[in-house]
Amino acid sequence: xxxxxxxxxxxxxxxxxxxxxxxxxxxxxxxxxxxxxxxxxxxxxxxxxxxxxxxxxxxxxxxxxxxxxxxxxxxxxxxxxxxxxxxxxxxxxxxxxxxxxxxxxxxxxxxxxxxxxxxxxxxxxxxxxxxxxxxxxxxxxxxxxxxxxxxxxxxxxxxxxxxxxxxxxxxxxxxxxxxxxxxxxxxxxxxxxxxxxxxxxxxxxxxxxxxxx
Length: 213
What we know:
Blueprint: E1 5-8, H1 14-23, E2 27-31, H2 42-51, E3 57-62, H3 67-77, E4 81-84, H4 90-99, E5 103-109, H5 113-118, E6 128-132, E7 160-162, H6 171-178, E8 182-185, E9 190-192, E10 195-196, H7 198-212
Parallel strand pairs: 1-2, 1-8, 2-3, 3-4, 4-5, 5-6, 6-7
Antiparallel strand pairs: 9-10
Helix pairs in contact: 1-7, 6-7
């Protein structure tokens, strides 16, 4: 049985990065997007990245960045994965996928079954698609859930993950209902916007691992 992949996103302090790693997360996410309460500068992101052991993948989240700032961010942080969370086109992502060493993920705001079908256009442009709730005030991290029933019987065209409103109390149900190979939580693990709760991080990872087992 494949390992359940678990991403803790929007980490911004050494303590919360360490908590995610110690709990058993497979991926940790760093948000470089100034409007977000989870934003970290490239210097902060690079320092946090250095704390993460090699068996855990570091995901750098960018939103609608131009090519030059994208290149600068990737060179500064050297993540394992770059997650694009805006209106990036399949053509742009395919170019990056072909010419960079990074794993490319595309977050996709999922509203209905038609959206699920249209997401297939990223099949050759990214290594993984991450289904999130549709964008509201921010592209992600809004604590809103997807209708999990949309995934019933769906044949996924590419590796995928589930985000949007996940927390320690509902992640087991989410995995059971959707079979998500990767689950991603951010605002559902916070005591205030941008402030991660280490106990919630541990509980989330434990619940996700328990569901997969």
